[in-house]
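Researcher: Final request for today, and then I'll write up notes for the group meeting. The sequence and the SMILES for adenosine-5'-triphosphate follow.
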Amino acid sequence: MKGLAILLVDDEPLMRLSMVDALEAVGYDVHAAASGTEGIEAVRQKAFDLVITDLRLPGADGLTVLKATKEKSPQTEVVVITAHGSVETAVGAMKFGAFDYITKPFQMDELLLIVERVGRVVALRRENQDLKETLEDKFSFGGILGTNSQMRGVLDKIKLVAGTDSTILILGESGTGKELVANAIHQNSARSQYPLIKVSCAALPETLLEAELFGHEKGAFTGALRQRRGRFELAHRGTLFLDEIGEISPVVQVKLLRVLQERKFERVGGNDTIDVDVRLVCATQKDLRKEVAQGRFREDLFYRLNVVQVVIPPLRKRQEDILVIAEHVLQVCSTRMNKKLKGFSPAARELLLRYSFPGNVRELENMVERSVALGRDREAVQPSDLCGYQSCPFTGGVPQDSCGFCSEGLTGQKRAERPMTSLAAAREEFEKDYIVSVLERVEGSRTTASKILGLSRKALWEKCKRYGIPSAKDEPEDET
Ligand SMILES: Nc1ncnc2c1ncn2[C@@H]1O[C@H](COP(=O)(O)OP(=O)(O)OP(=O)(O)O)[C@@H](O)[C@H]1O
Ligand SMILES: [Mg+2]
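Model: Predicted protein-adenosine-5'-triphosphate complex:
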């Protein structure tokens, strides 16, 4: 690699000069130092790609130069030169992170070969770095990947509003990345050095949620043995992320409304009014407008929360993101688990694109992670790795235990237990189960289900009637 920045540390003038000549002749950018101290000084001034240092030096020795280099810039590679007979010291240097060593006397060509190897490593590293940066600039923000235009819109929006203090309402199906967005908003706000406090509103019954959010005084209720600060107080000057906000009870809704209006509240069982400076970010999978229309969610609270709305589309509506995220997860998992896997076979890609991912990005992540952990360690992930089984009786290899194509998540044993029938009967059985599972997941919405299934509403309705699936039977047929 031309232009590699090299620092050469050697106290013998002749050696130094001939090495500088040889290296410069190849086109490297060489800086020379005549002692260890001088070398360390140079390393502190500039980040070199490579430091070549003699081990025996007056003043600071080569090992000290090595340590100083790695301390200042861990990515800088170091090659040590050692005298014949003191190879052990050189091996010791490798333990401190030296790239390689060369034994004196040596041919210039030997040195050049090592430098060439360093050049390749540095070039590769730069390439990766560049790639990562372009990916990060172009397609991601705060770890949120997305190339789909709607997703780009989401990212632009959160970049724009992160720095403001506006309340944000994040809407999206399970696993679409709502929490990830909340994190990105907090991290990119002026509040980032203060806490981001998260509360899952669905996890707690009403009274506990109230105490959790606002805290309580000693003796406020049975079991309140001492005073406790709530999440609002803990989030002071930072961000409070209220997950599954659609689940909060009317009583808590009223209290929340008051905090939003007045930025004040009292602990449960307390009289002191507490002021807080908290930025609120909320998320829900529910259609909050519908909740309002049906009287389950206060309209005034909805408007307070819905200042900036961020809607994350489900993964099936942004197919171009599937492979981007899959490749990213594959790389991370493959490196972490020390595997060879680098990509997906064409068939595996097709499978990923064909699948509807009811569990969205979380499901995709799990699927890829599992295929890395359990699949065979080859260069490309195959359909059978994604599937977890060798082949699926219905789809010939679509992911089974989570995909809904085989709605029961058949294990090998269950599969063997299944009664042997004609293929047509088996297909019908599957079709029925699959429609039921899709309808369940979309909360009975025939419109959504028919889109996922790729059927007209009429065709879906007919199938439901034929299989005696109740959820859709009572709905009027309003479309042909
Ligand atoms: N666009 C994305 N790029 C990269 N990773 C993503 C993206 N979206 C989601 N993820 C990852 O998917 C997983 C699920 O995301 P997250 O927990 O934020 O979803 P969620 O919407 O909060 O889900 P739930 O409603 O079930 O709580 C996380 O591991 C997250 O890092
Ligand atoms: Mg979540």
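Model: The chain has four domains: 5-133, 162-313, 327-398, 419-480. The pocket of adenosine-5'-triphosphate (ligand 1) is lined by residues 144-146, 172, 174-180, 285, 325, 361-362, 365 (CB under 6 Å).
Researcher: Thanks, that's everything.
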